[in-house]
Design goal:
With about 160 residues, this protein is of the alpha+beta class. It contains four helices and eight strands; from the N terminus they run βααββββαβββα. Strands 1-2-3-4 form a four-stranded antiparallel beta sheet, with helices on one face. Strands 5-7-8-6 form a four-stranded mixed beta sheet.
Length: about 160
């Protein structure tokens, strides 16, 4: 039997994300949220009989789980020449500068003098953020502020992807 000398076709390159993060809730939010839902269900259960006795538990505990999961759904990624924040995306060719922010810097950017046209995805349980300054004259949005647990890594990834593109 003769072996083939031709090599197999190369697999199509799939660009791996240069940065990816999910802004999940801290671990302590889950027991606290479930305890609040359980306490509320117990309050509604008091003195009830029949269906009214177990219905609050059947509805409130899954609703609390769904609400907590929904709060931690936001994903931040830099891939394919774009910054993705949940379902919003920004082509990196419009990025002028990126500033990593700590808690105090985020408070200053989002404080009293905040620009109402800015695009903001802020999670209070995440300390850091990045400010992405835009250079698109057609866009009224001056900058994006995005929460992240690793502001320096995200800023570096955005600038590296912008410069590579």
């Amino acid at each position: 039997m003769r072996q083939s000398t031709s090599s197999p076709a190369p697999a199509s390159p799939v660009a791996a994300p240069q940065y990816a993060e999910r802004l999940t809730l801290p671990w302590w939010a889950w027991p606290a949220g479930l305890a609040v839902a359980g306490l509320l269900a117990a309050e509604l259960w008091l003195g009830a009989s029949g269906v009214r006795a177990w219905l609050p538990f059947l509805l409130l505990i899954p609703a609390a789980v769904a609400g907590l999961a929904w709060l931690g759904r936001i994903r931040v990624a830099v891939r394919d020449g774009e910054l993705w924040v949940d379902d919003a995306h920004l082509p990196l060719r419009y990025v002028a500068d990126v500033v990593p922010l700590d808690v105090a810097g985020r408070r200053e950017v989002l404080g009293v003098g905040a620009d109402p046209l800015a695009f903001v995805v802020q999670r209070p349980w995440v300390g850091g953020a990045v400010q992405v300054v835009l250079a698109d004259p057609a866009d009224p949005t001056p900058f994006w502020v995005v929460s992240t647990r690793r502001p320096v890594a995200l800023a570096t990834a955005i600038l590296a992807a912008r410069d590579a593109g």
